[in-house]
């Protein structure tokens, strides 16, 4: 049984370890927590979600819905775990983060050929093939080792975490349950409306509020897809009303007119005792957060189970360092003596939970094919995962983290606006199904055990 090493017990690392283990590899999975913590994690649980508890949409007309559909077709273990931990949230896959982490940890511990090491890995040096899924919060020692060896400038951006509120502290006389556009069988979101006067005061306070001071060595870069709410407010008075506080699809107010602005709260756990502020990632000081967010009528007595916070995410310059299979290029100076190495997760620049799982699956697949058959077999670019990997590994002078989106899929012709997503989605799914069918005779494509066997 061939031995391999996986560094990192997050979403990508756990998916990769499970995919490798069920294909017959002896996997050493390393996770440094809880002995060495990060600025964002709470404890030592595997696959811990540190930001939102939502994996986003499920509909095939949405980019994330398509990506999940592919992972389901490909046998993702963590997608199954997320489905088993789901909490009501309309058409999105939102989970109880503790139930999800516990489910993944049970899978890892039940796998007969995964050994979980609660140790920090500080170097790429090893006698075994390695998959690095150390996440955006890799330890300083490992980060320094990676960048010193690869000779690439350290890149990073800032990611922000939204506050979580105790449900019974929300004043429901100033709030209402409703899903946007009434999607889903039950109303899962709490909506907190603001009138124009309150909204203007709210935005003004955000614009002048004190944020947590950044460390001197941290560059002031922000990921456009996850801006802190105070940064959005500073871009213009109306920015939030056309962003996370948009009032559309939520019915009419008491005056028969559209709400002026609305903050949505999403269930954080199955019991619905905790709700997070959707789109309200922030780096404001905790006292300032309470002062400003309690200006909202429904939140005037809010009890915050967790305030928002800010942390640095580190990623490598993947287009210069990785092949289209997420393997570290073999022609990089000074890496000749290293074992075969693959990268996965947010350290590659793939932004998002579902994307992290996808890169974990993809890197493990190509690692297995390379070690077993000497030839990797990447997914086609026409697929969601294949197109995301194309973005991560294609030449790009201004490389930045990216979520999967329809713009990454190949556009082969002109599309009518209403049919574009449907056609691209159908083409992507068909590409994956054809790809799967072409490997029916390869034993390494067939897991020796399933999610249901181990949960």
Question: Can you characterise this structure?
Answer:
With 455 residues, the protein is α/β, with parallel strands linked by helices. The protein folds into 2 domains: 3-152 and 316-454, FAD/NAD(P)-binding domain, CATH 3.50.50.60; 160-311, Beta Barrel (Elongation Factor Tu (Ef-tu), domain 3), CATH 2.40.30.260. The protein is 31% helix and 15% strand. The chain has a 6-stranded antiparallel beta sheet.
**Element string (H = helix, E = strand):** EHEEHHEEHEEHEEEEHHEEHEEHEHHHH
Low-confidence runs of at least 5 consecutive residues: none
CATH architecture annotation name of the largest domain: 3-Layer(bba) Sandwich
Characterize the main sheet.
Answer: 6 strands, antiparallel
State the helicity in percent bands: 25-40%
CATH class of the largest domain: Alpha Beta
Main-sheet strand order equals 10-11-12-13-9-14
Structural class: alpha/beta
Distance between the termini: 24 Å
What's the number of helices?
13
